[in-house]
């Protein structure tokens, strides 16, 4: 597998509980690649840097491996690495 859809990856890596929620967050601008909004079907590959906003936290991750199937939490953590510690977003800090 050379690439996988962004929404499937985020679901498989356990960032979102359902694939539908993953799609909704991407469409809502909570997930960006290279600082730009993308669509759920965007193909990603190992090495892709993804910015994710979850509630009041912002994370930046690097994709290490691909999966279209949701596995256990320890398996999901092997799919990516955090580039920095999750940071708290201020009330007025809405842009990523």
Which secondary structure elements does this structure contain, and how are they paired or packed?
Elements lengths: L3 E2 H7 L6 H9 L3 E3 L2 E2 L5 E2 L4 E6 L2 E7 L9 H5 L2 E3 L4 E2 L8
Antiparallel strand pairs: 1-4, 2-3, 2-5, 5-6, 6-7, 6-8
CATH-derived architecture: Roll
Query: How many structural domains does the protein architecture include?
Result: 1
Give the CATH superfamily.
RNA-binding S4 domain
Instruction: Fill in the CATH topology.
Output: Structural Genomics Hypothetical 15.5 Kd Protein In mrcA-pckA Intergenic Region, Chain A
Q: Mean pLDDT across all residues, rounded?
A: 90
Question: What is the structural class?
Answer: alpha+beta
Listing every helix as H and every strand as E from the N terminus to the C terminus, the arrangement reads: EHHEEEEEHEE
How many strand elements? 8
CATH class: Alpha Beta
Rg, rounded, reads: 12 Å
Tally the helices: what do you get? 3
Helical amount among residues, as a percent range?
10-25%
**Fraction in beta strands:** 25-35%
- Could you describe the largest sheet, including whether it forms a barrel? 6 strands, antiparallel
Question: What is the approximate shape?
Answer: globular
In the predicted model, the low-confidence regions spanning at least 5 consecutive residues are none
Distance between the termini: 30 Å
């Amino acid at each position: 597998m050379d690439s996988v859809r962004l929404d499937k990856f985020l679901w498989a890596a356990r960032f979102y509980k359902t694939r539908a929620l993953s799609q909704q967050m991407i469409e809502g601008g909570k997930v960006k690649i290279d600082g730009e909004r993308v669509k759920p079907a965007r193909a990603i590959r190992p090495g892709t840097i993804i910015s994710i906003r979850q509630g009041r936290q912002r994370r930046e991750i690097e994709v290490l491996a691909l999966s279209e199937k949701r596995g256990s939490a320890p398996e999901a953590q092997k799919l990516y690495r955090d580039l920095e510690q999750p940071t708290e977003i201020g009330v007025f800090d809405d842009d990523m």
